[in-house]
Design a protein that fits this description.
With 172 residues, this protein is an alpha/beta fold. The chain has two helices and 17 strands.
Length: 172
């Protein structure tokens, strides 16, 4: 998949939570620790420019002229699966979670996976919203405050609620 600015990664299956891994390499532990420290710094950073820079260092794909509010949680395990295009806004207390990792006793019901999240050009994710794996928020769309988005949002659309439902179209 392609966006205007980025080449979007394909989703993939991941190990279930609680599965034994062969061994945790030093590199894996280092990357997790680095991402966690960058997350903490970005979470409390006093300016948007610092928050954007720290999240880029973490691996998040962020274009120019993007606003990231305070207290935004962007996936630490798979930050490279998050794409935020220019003039988009992710406001305070929102969460972008690119992976779903249930315990293995849910294997027959739920698939452990990572899917890309794409926040398209000019879109707004309002305060306290949650964007789940595999969601694309269309160009110039608005996700209302406190919404939980499980499905793609069409361009120039307002959605709200849990789960988020289309409320109307936006004229720009």
């Amino acid at each position: 998949m392609k966006s205007e600015k980025f080449i979007i990664r394909e989703g993939k299956k991941i190990p279930y939570g609680g599965e034994k891994k062969d061994k945790k390499s030093f590199f894996y532990v280092f990357v997790r620790l680095k991402n966690y420290l960058l997350f903490l710094l970005a979470y409390f950073a006093p300016s948007c420019k610092i928050r954007v820079t720290l999240n880029r260092w973490k691996g998040v794909n962020i274009a120019k002229n993007v606003y990231i509010g305070t207290g935004v949680f962007i996936d630490n395990m798979y930050p490279e699966y998050i794409y935020i295009e220019e003039f988009a806004s992710v406001n305070a207390g929102s969460m972008l979670i690119a992976h779903f990792n249930p315990y293995q006793h849910f294997r027959c019901v739920l698939q452990a996976r990572v899917e890309p999240i794409v926040i398209k050009k000019g879109a707004i994710v309002a305060v306290g919203s949650i964007i789940n794996p595999g969601v694309t928020v269309g160009e110039y769309s608005i996700v209302a405050a406190g919404s939980v988005v499980n499905d793609d949002v069409e361009p120039k659309t307002l959605v709200r609620g849990n789960p988020a439902k289309k409320i109307g179209k936006i004229k720009i």
